[in-house]
Design a protein that fits this description.
Blueprint: H1 2-6, H2 10-15, H3 17-63, H4 68-72, E1 80-83, E2 89-93, E3 97-98, H5 108-118, H6 130-141, H7 151-159, H8 169-185, H9 188-198, E4 200-201, E5 205-206, H10 208-216, H11 225-234, H12 247-263, H13 269-276, H14 295-311, E6 322-325, H15 329-353, H16 363-368, H17 370-378, H18 381-389, H19 395-403, H20 406-416, E7 419-426, E8 433-437, E9 455-456, H21 462-471, E10 479-481, E11 487-488, E12 494-495, E13 508-510, H22 511-516, H23 520-531, H24 543-555, E14 575-576, H25 578-589, E15 593-595, E16 600-604, E17 610-613, E18 618-621, H26 625-640, H27 651-654, E19 663-668, E20 674-681, E21 684-692, H28 714-726
Helix pairs in contact: 5-11, 5-12, 7-8, 7-9, 11-12, 12-13, 15-28, 18-19, 21-23, 21-24, 21-26, 23-24
Amino acid sequence: MADTENNIDMSRYFSDPEYRKEIAALRKKEKEKQSGKKIWFFFGSLLLLFLFAGAGYTYYLFQGMPSIQELENPRTAIASEVRSRDGVVLDRYFIENRTYVSIENISPNVINALIATEDHRFFNHWGVDSQTLLRLPFYWIQQRFHGGSTISQQLARNLYRNIGFDVSVTRKLREMMTAVQIEYNYTKREIIEMYLNTVEFSNSAFGIESAARTHYGKSAGELTIPEAAELIGQLRAVYAYNPRIFPERATARRNVVLSQMNLRGFISDELSEALRQEEIVLNYHPPSRSGRESRYFGEYVRQQVMPWIEENGYDLFSDGLVIYTTIDSRLQRHAERSVRENLAEFQPRFEREWSSPGGGYMNRLWEQYPNFLRSFIRETDRYKNGFSKYQTNQESVVFANLEADEAFIDSLKRARTKLQASFTAIDPANGHVLAWVGGADYGAQQFDHVHQARRQAGSTFKPFVYAVAIDNGYMPYHTFSKYPVSFIEQSGRMWNPKDPSVPSGPERVSLREGLARSLNNVTVRLLPEIAGAPGTNRAIELEPAARMIRNMASNLGIDMSRTPAFPSIALGTAEVTLLELVSAYTTFANQGVHIEPIAITRIEDKEGNVLVEYFPEFSQEAISPETAYIMIDLMRGVVRGGDGYHGTGVRLRNVYNVQQDVAGKTGTTQNSADNWFVAMMPHIVMGSWVGGEDRRIRFPTNSPNSIGQGARTALPIVGQFINYASNDPDSYWSTEGFTPPPGFVMPEAPAQPQQDNRRNRIDW
């Protein structure tokens, strides 16, 4: 165009019409040429734009898809399990309540129901159903971007959350592309296995194994046809077809699945019709309790394994670890039953003992301890917020308002006067913890009274005093005065430990009778002898004995770092845990060798590979086998009694009819706040504690029939446990008795016992 304009003869252009026509034609031709170039440039640019957009969209699609590494190693949150030594699941740790199970352990009924309902051409496609694929454009025109997904496509969504669940063409394409990759990487059996282990069911159950146990109380391999159909039917909408909430709706959906199974040839017409008439019968186990027998023990295990798990890069809540423990599930079941049943009996009796007719809830307790109630009130949020609520800085005003609220006060009193109990049992030969009950209800109280609670041991500590005496040559037949004795403290005050009453009979009492009857006066009179200061009346001269007692308890496995070596240690002022106490007693039953308690034996990954193993820590001989056996024999007397006297644990034989060889010791603290009993047999050492959930709560002390004694609360728990376990043919139980060390002969009392006990000591 520019060239044409530059070559025009202007004088000729205006004078020659033909010339003007020629120029006009040239101009038109030039315009057409320029217009063609623009059109080609436009379409070329548009094509490049589409190419770049397509490449960008393809890149965008792949960005939202799993990597090759993720495809080869799909990660699903799998619950870790705590298992008993006999394989029972005791507890589970999870983000999603999921247990992985292989396809060999899934009922064929489940697989048939899944194929018939979700993807009947599953074994004939390559991840995407071609028939469904041909219908997709029509779906998209109608703005329907879902439906018709194969099992592989559904698995892609379940495994790889970055694909998403939004309704869009992009999500659908990603899902399809990932499904094709899954089919390339895995066999059909592996795809079904992964699918059934990842899909969510009703009631927060993830995976078919958890769903089966949650809804029917059985494993996935045991599911019947209607049970399998009901569970697969839930997959359409886990809430809408929840059989617990909507049984009629769930039944209708199950029948649809049964019809599909019939249509696809998995079940006959007759069977389908018969099964459709059946009702859904659930054996529902709430997810928080599914497979759970001992939540207290599970929390203890978690605390023990977390350092190793964190150090080695595992996740307890999603890696599907299996933690094997020493717990025997049958003994655990009997222990929990005994604690539960006895507490149900103790609580109303405890309340009655503190109550006068017409006096209100436990009125005698509040009258005897008037400061308790206000101390409880001070610990409530209502008290702490009361100053601002009542616009005052006067505590008396807050108390006046709160105490006027009868419902609040009654609720507070009942909450703070709840009794708690704990129980544990250990195999003395290897330190294996066989049973563990940390309290009445973990949901209500997460504080574990087996290993967290430190309470005064009371008279259960006396065997350590006697063990020191036996180790120093004193014999069971040595006698001491049954009357109290006083000692002068450095401050000038008198220390006057004594029994509530002096028993009848001869003035002098043997060590055997003293321990059997748990006489404080006899125990205290041992201290000067052990300290090498017979006849002293100064408390400071008893401290060597206190140090020896503390060392003895420490050698037997009790943490004594918080306990000063005061003479009062002999009467059980030391605070111990039930686990420590029972473990210490295993030393007597194990011929003087102490083994630290062990609760975990190994940790495996979800594939069954052993990651770490744990073994008992054997200590050196804590006491001689002879001393250990004499202590066993002394504590037999606690249960059997002797000539002319009953032991404090005689109820174990008289009430619970335990006739096999057993030794034990009761314990009650001075204020009756803590009640204990430990029983020993060659194959098991058992201990129980009963007391107030709040340390201030105690049993009445002025009633001869009060349950506030170890023999009346802690002993029944052990006694009932022994009855349940010994009568269970499947339980780990033995009736063999204790055997003395080789060549050992129990020392006999001389014909004429000497008054000076030290002359009759025996040096081992």
